[in-house]
Fold each of these.
Amino acid sequence: MVFIGNVGRGPLLAMINRILVCLDKSTYTDAAIDYACWLARHHDASLEGLVVLDVEGIERSVGAVPLGAMKFAKTGIAAKEENYHQLMETLLAKFSERCEAAGVRHMEFEMQGEPAEAILEESNYFDCVVVGLRTFFTYESGAGKDGEYGTADDEPGDSLEQIMKTTLAPVFAVPLNWKPDDHFSALIAHNGSPHSMRALRQFARLYGRTQVSVSLMHCTDAADQSPEMLGKSVGFLRAHGFANVEARTESGDIRDVMSADYCEPFDLVVLGAHGKSG
């Protein structure tokens, strides 16, 4: 899982109370719901499930309309909207059932419009956002030729990238097969920047009561820059109840260091939303 800390300047709360869960047609939504329920129980928070009807995407799927064929095009658009609306109702019903089974307070709602814009509009009124690591909110997105999500054939949208750029709320991007576990490991990429510090502080408040092993990692070619910053960061986390914290220094560009293989052993990867350096 990837946790992207926001870059806002508002005060940090001791806990979270209201979580936005973004639901799409993919099986990533199942993992997102599982994680959101786990997080809600951890913080005694409520969940709100959101689905977005991508009206513009449906209209684009019809393509150019020949002269005199507008009536048929409108009929086709209406049929696609109705089918998609039925899918949305199914997603909301599934979300409600899973929340009830988990004993979590919940609400459901739907919006129309460009998915990323709709999610961003709502996210500012929530303490955090939970979404799949790959997103399929747009009408054109899907599982690809093999019909299975989580493979190289996936045709995802870019809603997650757009949300990360501007949301004020922390974003949890959940991988396909996430399962709840009381013990897990986290990698925190840290360079001492305001964005990085913000992510570190949010991690501490969100996970302070869990049993997690933390690896603090700083990428730099100047070895003398790491010890003091990492030492203070380790002290900060331990003061918030994290007993198992290690610090490590890597050389090179962080985009090269944090490969899929490097991140694979960790259950959670923590990043500052707009960090560009080690």
Amino acid sequence: MTMTRSLLIRRTLVYVIMICTALLTISPFLLVISTSLKTTNEINIDGPLALPHIFHWDNYSRIWDVGNFVTYYKNSVIVAVVVVAFVILLALLGAYPLAYMKFKGKGIFFLIVLWGLTVPMDLIIIPLFNNLKSMGLLNTIWALILPQIAMNIPFSIFLLRGFMRDIPYALLESARIDGSTEVKNLYYIIMPMLYPPLVSLIVFTAIGTWNNFMLPTILIQNDQLRTLPVGLNYFQTKFTMDYPMIATAAVVSALPTALAYIVFQRNILSGVMVGALKE
């Protein structure tokens, strides 16, 4: 009886702590959403923590008129799609030989890949700026695409190689005996078995590219080429005292990444765990 009561108390405490932690985590998001549905007068009179008397959904339609968010969204989508496509393609082509083929310098190539994981963007941003300037790529969409492809390749190869190494090598040998080429092996045998890590990689790369703030800030000065995070920062400086519009812009900016994580969260966790355990 005493043990049952003690277990009940411990479980209750665990649930209380978990609920309090969840509330503390989501309360800033709820506050931003609540603020986006108010007017400035409501905030000044009732305070920022009060619930809105009337939900002003027109803030979400107004944001597209007063801000250049259609252009920012378009640029972010273009950059994210191109970066993800090239990263997945190049990572597959890089991870396959490192996982299955034997050639001289294989270990050195893999060490170079691992070294790429340790290079922060802060360290190379000045040389990158000078190189892009000399090539005439500053203030172009390629100034955002090419560096992000290069920065995402090392982790992508590392993740996919770890998963590929656990796939039975006998499958490839049987396919080669039947006359299959390496390209067919990769496309018809390996890729269908890479669904969890590929989904994780796509989501990670897309979210990281979507939220990248440093590169567009430094490399892009043209408002028509700004992506969503930089556009949101520019919008905040323009509407400094209009808190509902700033909150609305923040919700609109964060919505795609939040939805992506909610939809693919199981695939993200399974892909990361698989990739970690394979190594």
